[in-house]
């Protein structure tokens, strides 16, 4: 078994209103069941999710948090605005975004954008993935899977890795439970989060700031299925032991 | 930019004393700077890290934990024996292994082994990776990177993904900090945990129970460097906010 992963060449600097599907299809010949992995930054830019810092008036709360964490109060305000729930204020701002993803700073990125502007996450990453997948089908008649990624830190392990925040044409996990291993034992291995593993794979090629080469195609893994949405990957609050401990903390 | 990932064919069932480097080199022609990714299960088996459940006498503590978590007290005892620190007893047993990796059940795997035996993690995964890398060099004169992987759950996200637990000939992270993005901004992006991203990449090909095809080669990403060990990826306790909250729980 094998697969290839490669960057889509010649993606220009993306701006508000750009048609990502069109840009991708112009620069690469896609095949059925390719997995098209896109850094959230360019999806956000195409959707105009860019805010000038000067337009943000930080609240007292944002100013307090920013002082404690040695951050920019305007960025903190933007994070608060994008969040449904604040899990940890310090030493870093850990939030649940309005899309139910728990991450630091609501995924807001201050790099790869002209000085003085920040890039938010796409408003509805699952919806963005679906739109791009459908637009690719309109242009090429190819059925592909689409994964939109962010880069997140992890509990217990340093560094950051690519994760899926919006998906279409693929399910978040594959389930080995119930199948049998080489010895005939029933496997108890739980769900494998394939969309996150594919996001990590693509992140190896995205390069600096996810902008020089923000689109990667993974070819040879056939995970295409008519399905939408990443959210089943996020724990219901009642099951989330770590969130619980941090909030009680 | 692109890379390929492929399974090494014809890996037999691995038993104590088997020479993994020899088995791998017999079945694939390696190139300089290939990344050889190996599921920890087969490394553990080659090293004889397999224990018959019947040989384990569970302590009272193991019996209590097993009752609460609806587990097997002998498996719980094996987990306690492999652990340096218990972070959470319930609803699952989250521990720090003697190799400083924080994971559920000390990575002990009850699948893919003849009924009645469990597979522990390799005793010293960084050492195992180094030995395999050096043995591959002895056989082929090729300098490769070696990554030994486990499959771990994550905070905040359901499902499990491949992670690196032992490495050789590669550094755990690459650091974008200080380099500049397309707009000339200095990137603040922290370390990218490339060894975990490569482990996730390989996990997509390992297949059921990581045993049918437990060795994957990633070719085309050149991360080779003379370096040893994954441990700098693990937070010092003083910096580990999540561990702290769980222990105080």
Task: Give structural attributes.
alpha+beta; three-stranded antiparallel β-sheet; homodimer; five-stranded mixed β-sheet; 29% helix; CofE-like fold; 60s Ribosomal Protein L30, Chain: A; 249 residues
The CATH class of the largest domain in chain A: Alpha Beta
Indicate the CATH topology of the largest domain in chain A: 60s Ribosomal Protein L30, Chain: A
Total domain units of chain A: 2
* CA-based gyration radius of chain A: 19 Å
Give the oligomeric state: homodimer
The amount of helix of chain A comes to 25-40%
Order of helices and strands of chain A: EHEHEHHEEEEHEEEEHEH
CATH superfamily label of the largest domain in chain A: CofE-like
pLDDT averaged over residues of chain A: 91
Strands of chain A, total number: 12
Kindly summarize this structure in a few lines.
The structure is a homodimer of 249-residue chains. With 249 residues, the first copy, chain A, is of the alpha+beta class. Chain A has helices at residues 20-27, 40-46, 60-69, 73-81, 125-140, 194-206, 241-248; strands at 2-7, 35-39, 50-52, 83-88, 94-97, 102-104, 117-119, 145-153, 160-168, 174-175, 191-192, 215-219.
């Amino acid at each position: 078994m094998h697969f290839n992963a490669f960057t889509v060449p010649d993606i220009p600097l993306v701006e508000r209103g750009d048609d990502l599907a069109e840009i991708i299809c112009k620069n690469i010949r896609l095949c059925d069941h390719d997995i098209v992995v896109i850094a959230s930054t360019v999806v956000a830019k195409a959707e105009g999710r860019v805010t000038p810092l000067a337009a943000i008036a930080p609240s007292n709360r944002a100013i307090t948090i920013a002082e404690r964490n040695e951050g920019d109060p305007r960025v903190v305000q933007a994070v608060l605005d994008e969040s449904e729930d604040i899990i940890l204020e310090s030493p870093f701002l850990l939030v649940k975004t309005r899309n139910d993803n728990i991450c630091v700073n609501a995924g807001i990125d201050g790099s790869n954008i002209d000085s003085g502007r920040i890039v938010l996450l796409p408003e509805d990453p699952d919806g963005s993935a679906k739109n791009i997948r459908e637009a690719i089908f309109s242009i090429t008649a190819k059925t592909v899977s689409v994964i939109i990624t962010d880069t997140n830190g992890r509990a217990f392990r340093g560094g950051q890795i690519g994760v899926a925040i919006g998906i279409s044409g693929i399910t978040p996990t594959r389930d080995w439970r119930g199948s049998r291993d080489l010895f005939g034992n029933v496997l108890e291995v739980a769900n494998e989060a394939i969309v996150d593993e594919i996001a990590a794979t693509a992140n190896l090629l995205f390069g600096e700031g996810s902008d020089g080469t923000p689109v990667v195609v993974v070819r040879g893994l056939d995970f295409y299925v008519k399905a939408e949405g990443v959210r089943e990957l996020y724990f219901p609050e009642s099951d989330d032991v770590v969130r619980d401990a941090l909030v009680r903390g």
